[in-house]
Every structure is written in C-alpha cells, then in structure tokens.
Amino acid sequence: MAKKLDKVDVVIVGTGFSGGIPAAELSKKGYKVVALERGKDQDVTDFVGAKDELRYASRYYMQQDNSLSTITARSNTDEEAFPLRTQEENFEGTDVGGNSSHWSGVTHRATAFDFEARSITIEKYGEDKIPKDMFLQDWGITYDELEEYYDKFEKMAGTSGEEDPVGVPRSSPYPTPPMKETPPITLFKEAAKNLGYHPFQIPSGNISEQYENPDGQTINACQYCSFCMMYGCDFGAKSDPIVTVIPTAKETGNYELRTNSFARRVLHKDGKATGILYVDMRTGMEYEQPADIIVLGGYPLSNTKLMLLSKIGEPYNPETKKGVIGKNAGGFSSPSSTITGFFEDKKFNLAMGAGALGGTFSDLDSDNLDTTDLDFIGGGMVELRLRGEGPVIYNRVPKETPSWGKEFKEKSLHYANRGLFVVFKAASYGWAFNYMDLDPTYKDIFNDPLLRVTNRITDHDKKLEEFGIEKMTELMEEMGADIVENNGVAEEWSHQQGYGEAGGGVIMGDDPEISAVNNYSQVWDMENLFVIGASALPQKIQQQTATVGAFAYRAAEGMIEYLEGDGGLLVEPKK
Predict the structure, then answer these.
(1) Which of 542, 486, 151 is nearest to 337 (CA)?
(2) 68-90 residue pLDDT tens
(3) Which residues pair with 82 in a beta bridge?
C-alpha cells in the first residue's frame, strides 16, 4: 500500500521547461512545490569532460531506459504493434532537465497561421482545401495573445537571434545578439537572397554572449564546441532548465526535487485531482503525494500515457472519431526533407558548430506561402545548420560510393569538409487514423500497458515533402554544389519515434468536444489538473520548445490565479 505524504500546494511531474517554468513561478510566489523526476539528478558539473560522441550521440546516454517503459508502434489499426526497444527507435529524454537538457537550442516561435490553421485555411482557400480525415484545429488562442509569454520565455532563456523579415511581429528584440555567421551560413544566405528569399540567423538557445536573466541566473557564452545536440553543456552556455528555472525554483526554499520518482497515476476523486501516485525507483516504495494543483509537465508520450492510465478524459476512438485523449499524434513521421550538397572547390570548417548555429528563412512557411495551386496545407521552414560533424555519426559521401574499401576511405577523406545539408522542416497535421492509446498486449516494468502509437504517412505529407525537395535542390544548386542528393520521399513510417519531437495526445482548444485542455493548459474535465507541453499541440509544428515554454508561462499564470481565486475553469468552453 502506498505511503501517503503531507499535502503540498503543487506537485509537478517532470523537470524540463514544461515542469520547470511553473515550478519557478509558483515557488517564487511562496507556494510549496514538489517536483517528481523519473531520472537522476544532474547539473553542469556532470558534463565536464563529457565530449564523448560514442556515448552520447551513438549510444544515447541521456535518453530513457526503454527496458523500463517504451512505446509500441504500428502503421494501421489492423496490425499488431510491437515495442520499440532501442534508444534510436524511441528517443525520449530523462533526468533533471528532461529533453530540454540536451536539445539543440533552436528557438523558433510558432506562426500566426499555426494557432488558427483551420480558420485561416477556410478563410483563404475554402473548407474543401482540408483533406478528408485531417483534423485541422485551431488552438483556442491566437499568436497575439501568446506573444507576451514567448517574450517572457526568450528573456528567461537569453535567446540569441535576429528578427525574421517576413515573420510574426515581436514586442521586443531578442535579448542577446545572433550567433556568429560562418562561411557556410554566408553561402546559404547569399543563395537564398538570390532566389528572392529573406534569410536570417536561427534563433538560438546556445547564446552568443554571457547573459543574466530576470531571475538572476547567468547563462554563459557558447564556445561553438559542437557537443550540443544530444549532449549536456559543460560550459553552462545552453539555455536549458538546469541553468535557468530549476536553480530559480531551488533558491526560493519552496521547491523540493525528488529524483528517481516514476509517476504512475494521477489520483482523483469526485472530479478533482488529489495527488500523484509514484514509485521511488531506488527502493521500490510507492508514495502518494497529495496537492491542491497537479501538473503533468512531461514529454507528450508520458503525459498521454498518464492521462489514459488515470482514466481522465475520454480516450480517442478512431472508429467513431470521438474522444480527445490520444488524439492528433504528431511528429512521428513529419514531412521534412534533407538535401545534401558536395563541393569540389570549397572546404569548410565543419568540426566547429553548435546545436542551433545556422541560417534559415520562412518564405515557404504557413501563410507566407500561397498554396492555392498546391496540393497541401501550410509549408515549411528552410534551414542550414552547423552542429559540428564528429567522425562517428557524420561521414557524408556521395550515394554511389561503396560502404567500405579503398574508394570509401578516399572519398571519406575528400568530402570530410566539403558537404553541407539544408533541411525543409514542415508541420505534421492531425489525422483521424494517427493516434495514441494503451496497448492491449505489452506491459511496462510496473505491469501497466505500454502506450501504443498508430501512425501512417499520408499523400498530403508526401506532396509537402516533394515540394520541399524541389525547393531545396534549387537552393543547393544556387549555393554552387557540384553534387546534389536527396533521400527521397518516405512511403511508409519507419516505426521510429525519433529525436524527441513527438506532439499531441492532450491537445489544446476552445471546445471540450475536440480538445483536452484550454489555453491555460487546464484540463476541461478536471479543473485543478494542468497538462503542459508539446502534448497540447493540435499539430506538430516545425520547432516546439519556445511554444512549450510560452504555454508553461501562461499555465503558471493560470495556476496562480486559480490558487488565489475561487477555483473553477479559467476559460469558458466554446458554446
């Protein structure tokens, strides 16, 4: 039987930005906050000297142990799903800081179109533009309403960037200057301008100069060491929760962090959440942590699984298309394309880099792109990134090159610093047949059902990807590449969860019939339960960290209003 602990004001599951931001904001207000993290504790000192490509980039040291819990995957409802056992298949962060501790640092905001994709599409193109079975939904909040929270997130994170010439309006500049423009970025920008686009530096959480944020936390300047994406930063130069919101929460004296604490259920009675049931992974002891407010601030897969296991909200049913929990699974097969260019007469320093170092443009994204005569909705961002190419996971050679032998060695050496790649990153929209539920066969270490993902690639996705390949090929040729190659369009989902970019499952909206949370991330069916993160996204956007951070700041504001007021829903549902 679980041991019942003393009640606190707030209990939060997760220590990434989704959990860390409300922890900092509520503890600063004097509320007693307990945070449950399934992984171990860690800080910047744990990463000193840890520039080990094999350990982190190939063996995924900072990802969860899939022998404890994972997901199962299938492409159609008539298939049996099977567990994804390796970290390469199911890439989900763990430990203090969550996915945000090893993210690349790319910090794009969502577009105004993303927030109102359905309304804008119908207004501009008519409802017939929306394919059958596509769940294109508005978010129940506009960009203008969320802009102040984006601004707050960027000031906390010290985001380095410059304004997108054709992007969404901003209330203030980025708090630190953009990262350095290196020769490959200059080449990319010049080619983009020649084609009529408006390139700019990628907004980055690998910040360009030392910065003290409004909470008094110092983030150091990026050293361009390349050990960034999939690594923790030993310089303290990445704006992650470990150097920002977690220290802020700890300094209040109102925050208790419990690591190795695996949340299993949201406990509830008479329509209100009462606490979290969790297991101490070191002792096997079960505990019940009561609280006035319960926050699920985990990865989308974890948030969705906890909601389903706890029997909160109506699970999505693909046959009736009713229900909301598990709906609009996104990001598992995003229609993105990569073009690689090889240069015979140019050499670059590709060993130097950072997770978000690069150039980008948004001329082909959302309503910047007129899709009247195109067979898809939306569009995509274009980017060239210089993450730093280590010898283990990067070894670009032209496709006809043998995979071993003398010619392979010669071309590996020749093209080691002559290959660049550009990416077209597109949104992944919700579909009636792409969803998450509980697997009827496979269990986790606690004998609870695994989360099952059903996902398939659509014709819409393929057309969007083909468009990206065409445009990126043109761009790479303008950059002067002698050999231009692409990976083609995927016909079927590879059954990989991939790179920690899942979304959906507990989606946001203004109508409880088609959404699980309101625009304060408050669960419609349970007013003192807040579910924060990319799980709220009705469609998987191109880069979601800044949006998740904005959601978290707005949710924290709502929680404070809830605790200081008379309770109830903070937003009335659509009539």
Answers:
(1) 486
(2) 999 999 999 999 999 999 888 88
(3) 73
Residue at token pair 């499952």: 505
Contacts of 169 (CB under 8 A, 6+ apart): 147
| DSSP per-residue string spanning 135-200 | E----SS-HHHHHHHHHHHHHHHT-B----TTS---SS--SBPPPP--HHHHHHHHHHHHTT---E
Closest CA to 385 of 176, 229, 166: 229
Query: Which range has the worst mean pLDDT, 89-93, 288-292, 308-312, 382-386?
Result: 89-93
Chain-centre distance of CA 370, in angstroms? 27
Instruction: Name the nearest CA neighbour of 304 among 572, 537, 556.
Output: 537
**What local confidence, expressed as pLDDT, does residue 575 receive?**
65
| 433 half-sphere exposure, CB direction, 13 A CA radius | 13
pLDDT digits (tens, 9 = 90+) for 464-505: 999 999 999 999 999 999 999 998 998 898 888 866 689 999
Cα–Cα distance measured from residue 232 to residue 98, given in angstroms and rounded to the nearest whole number: 11
Residues 329, 49 contacting (CB under 8 angstroms): no
Percent of the chain as helix, strand, coil, to the nearest 5? 25, 25, 50
H or E element that contains 215: none
Residue linked to tokens 């000297």: 49
Question: Whole-angstrom Cα distance, residue 440 to residue 56?
Answer: 33
Question: Residue 10 to residues 17, 34, 210, 518: CA-CA distances in angstroms?
Answer: 16, 6, 33, 19
Distance CA 136, CA 373 (A): 19
Give the Cα separation of 503 and 507 in Å (integer).
9
The answer to whether 412 touches 397, Cβ cutoff 8 Å, is yes
423 neighbors 338 (Cβ within 8 angstroms)? yes
Mind giving me the DSSP string for 18-86?
A: HHHHHHHHHHHTT--EEEE-SS----GGGGTT---HIIIIIS-TTB--TTT--EEEESSTTSPPEE--S
CA distance 538 to 259: 31
Q: What angle do CA 25, 28, 34 make, to 5 degrees?
A: 75
Interatomic CA distance for residues 38 and 45, integer angstroms: 20
The half-sphere exposure of 209 on its side-chain side, counting CA atoms within 13 A, is 6
- Kindly give the pairing relationship between strand 419-426 and strand 380-385: antiparallel
pLDDT score at 500: 67
One-letter amino acid for residue 272 of the chain: K
Q: What is the DSSP letter of 93?
A: B
Token reading at 1: 């039987």
Output the CA torsion 229→230→234→238 (10° steps). 40
Q: Residue 37 and residue 319: Cα distance in Å, rounded?
A: 36
Q: Which two tokens stand for residue 68?
A: 């404890």
With CA atoms as reference, report the closest residue to 237 among 303, 166, 335, 159.
Answer: 159
Cα–Cα nearest to 220, from 163, 162, 160, 180: 160
Q: What angle do CA 34, 56, 100 make, to 5 degrees?
A: 35
| Cβ(305)–Cβ(563) below 8 Å | no
